[in-house]
Design a protein that fits this description.
This protein is of the alpha+beta class. The chain has a single domain, classed as 3-Layer(bab) Sandwich (minor pseudopilin epsh fold). 47% of the residues lie in helices and 16% in strands. Helix 2 crosses helix 3 and helix 3 runs antiparallel to helix 5. The model has no long low-confidence stretch (mean pLDDT 91).
């Protein structure tokens, strides 16, 4: 019960803070700052990172989450089922996207890849940079 409820609270708190209104400065588009540099270092460029994140997250069986975590000096894309969190694995989530059907079904029905592609328009890169700074320690 604690895992589901606590994980749900933690995951959704991060999720809502990691987004903002499209068209606002720092929301959507390509990242800037330290996270942009680390993405380029670990994935080659932002487009390659998005492709990896979207493909990995789209394959999450059933309900769950797609995550960007910082481990061993590198960014890594991972997923968790249900309300599980990278925190329970000793990892700090830098970026996370909810792929439970409730997150996208009304607008995208069963088209999870379309939802993932559109989600990048609302990512709050200032918040991602803050979380990345915490993850780096």
């Amino acid at each position: 019960m604690v895992r589901n409820n606590g994980g749900g609270h933690s995951n959704h708190t991060a999720f809502w803070n990691l987004m903002g209104p499209a068209g606002t400065a720092g929301i959507g588009g390509a990242p800037s700052g330290a996270i942009a540099d680390q993405i380029a270092k670990d994935f080659g460029d932002f487009e390659a990172f998005k492709k990896t994140f979207n493909e990995t997250t789209a394959k999450q069986f059933g309900s769950g989450w797609g995550w960007l975590v910082f481990e061993g000096g590198k960014l890594k894309v991972t997923t968790t089922a249900n309300q599980d969190s990278p925190l329970s694995q000793g990892l700090y989530p830098v970026l996370g996207n909810d792929v439970w059907e409730h997150a996208y079904y009304l607008k995208y029905q069963n088209r999870r890849p379309d939802y993932l592609a559109a989600w990048w328009n609302v990512v709050n890169w200032a918040e991602v940079n803050k979380r990345f700074a915490v993850a780096k320690g």
